[in-house]
Amino acid sequence: MAKKARVLVAKVGCDIHERGALTLINVFRDAGMEVIYTGRYQSEEGVVNAAVTEDVDLIAVSDLTGSLVIICRKILEELRRLEMDIPVICGGLLTKKDVTDLIDMGVKACFGTGSSIDECLCKVKEIVGM
Amino acid sequence: MYGRHSAARTKLAKRFCHLASNFIPKGLTRMLHAYTSSEIEGSDFCKMSENIELNRDEGGLVREETQSNIYVKPVYTPEDIKDNDYAGDIADPGCYPFTRGIYPKMYRDRLWLKAFLVSYDTPESTNAAFKSYIENGMNDLRLTCDLPTQNGLDPDHPLALSAMFCGGIASYAINTYETMLEGLPLENTVYEGGFMNVLDAIYFHGLLVAMIENRGGDISKLLGTDIADPIRSKLVYGDPSWPTEVERRVLMDHIEYCLEYTPKWKPVVPNGIDPCQAGMNAVHELGEVIAVCTAIIDDFCQRGHTIDEFGPMVVAMDAESDFFESIAKFRAARRMWAKIAKERFGAAKKSTMALKIGIRTSGLSLQAQKPLNNAARVTIQTLAGVLGGVNSIDACSIDEAIGLPSYEARMFTLDMQHIISHEANIPLTADPLGGSYYLEWLTDKLEADANEYLKEVEKNGGIYACLESGWLYRVMEEDRLRVQHEKAEGKRLIVGLNAFTGEDGAVSKAIADCAYTVPPESIRQERIAEVKAYRASRDPEAVAQAIRRLYSDTKNGVNVSRAVIDGGKVGMTIGEVCGVVRLGYGLGYDSVDMIPTPDYVAEALKEIMR
Q1: pLDDT at A30 over 80
Q2: CA atoms of B396 and B146, how far apart (whole Å)
Q3: A114/B488 CB distance under 8 A
Q4: Which helix (H) or strand (E) holds B286?
Q5: B481 contacts in chain A (CB < 8 Å)
Q6: What is the mean pLDDT of residues B363-382?
Q7: Is A6-128 assigned to CATH 3.40.50.280?
Q8: pLDDT at A78
Q9: What residue segments make up the domains of chain A, in order of their start?
Q10: For the whole model, what pTM was predicted?
Q11: Do A65 and B162 touch (CB under 8 A)?
């Protein structure tokens, strides 16, 4: 039997908005993935540490503070430092410029507040090879 | 995306250019004509090119239940409310049980307060925004700060950077408040603190008191409210700062301080908005709010007080998308609290039984797709508040699904309320829907269902035990999942999201482009430098004394309110106040365990902590 895809749903900093992350957890699980959730109030280093320890196939960062560029840059830097190649996607409050910046820095996909769940799930399946 | 509506709609959207498609009424039985996008350039009116067929059932209803899954019959008659006694269950406005509102003439004498959070990246811009909103009719000044500050973290805390400015200003100390409220009256002006936990509430109440004293004013004229709801801070925010037991004790201290020195300040406002936004349905929100009110009065009476000493209860509730359900919820809340205040707590004063309700419209209902539609959502939800007889309204901004509210979007929420008052004449008479067969039935139904839920809460050991055991969280999560599944199955249509989709037009695009975006990292670094410079500018001996006083008052079980006010005066930051109170309770200085106790704090406390 093929190994189940493992996804880390992550939140960083003091962002309390959790509904997007909780929704994704259910959606990914219903799609047959194993989901690990970091919970809130995590640091970028903590997220990467969890991703490496849990041997995940993808990190999905959820944030509604408008700071995904700052958060994802630090996560990617930390992944590079540890020489880990785990794909990162993100969702939440995003401007057009944020999306350009994020894709440029190596984030695989960005989902703004208006994105559909199907669209996100499709992309995640593609990345983890389901 | 889901169901027949969206499939038809997607087909239409493909055939029409997006500008024309925004104006197609649904369910018409005449033939419409499609346009090609090349024909529409430069004009809204174009030649016909092909005929399409219309479905008479397009846009038909898909559900028979309210948003919270209460089944609704097609028609209600006097039979449905035959057990309802006007004098006992409804009564005139201003009379027990206040179903129709707490004042005899309601808005004729006193319109609802117009409020919203005003908080931008700097104290200066926040001050300027306050002044222009006040000029345009805002009369309830709602204070908040960014999320790290609400967590009791100063801007230079390592966890603060990413959420800095989310929610607004990083108001870490009195210097920011002095600039932010420069030129604004502090006395006899309604302020509302919208913060995360009880100690935030005490700190920012303390800053207002400190400023009034510094200006030579009278602190008994401080007017307003704080949320300070110990259930919400854990249930919704997952706030790591305080154990609930600490919050409960500190809250009672704060209530006692306020009753003595700032009696016009309501130190706690049980909040249903955030649990509801996080998932709870209307029945559970209603039950939860009433349970928190009850728990607070229980704790207050445990200290040897009476409910009449506490006075009127104020709650914050959510105006959700379901129009009648929201109205019924506000009416039921007043009736439920009046009965509990009188029958359970033996209230003697009429004002003690009269529940004041402040509402916020539903930010969650707002959509990023075609944000122009959010104007309709906010207006309908605001109207539900007015028809539900609430006392203060915080209407969301139409751009909130995209970014923080822009200035013009805020102005719209004020103007929309002026239109309700002055053009639509809706507030002329109290409770104009009172007596409606449907509304009275629905009010009774919500009360009955919420009472059943309250029995379950009691069975599970009361609201604090339900929080501790995770039961309350599971209720919230089950409700949230039900909504998620209903949306996915097309049983709950959200315009622009899973039905009637289509591209944004020019106006919607402009709304999205104008939404306020949070400042970049460079501005955040400036704030970090600023707080460090501010700490260095203070009188170190005065700060050390304030630290010692706050620590020993906490440790010795003395009411900390005065120590917090005096600490604020000498420049203690929110991070320091939270850290020192934590030390007083034997906890670590940093609630997220990332930084050690600062040297100057350890130095100040080295004698007494030994």
Answers
A1: yes
A2: 18
A3: no
A4: helix B282-302
A5: 26
A6: 95
A7: yes
A8: 97
A9: 6-128
A10: 0.89
A11: yes
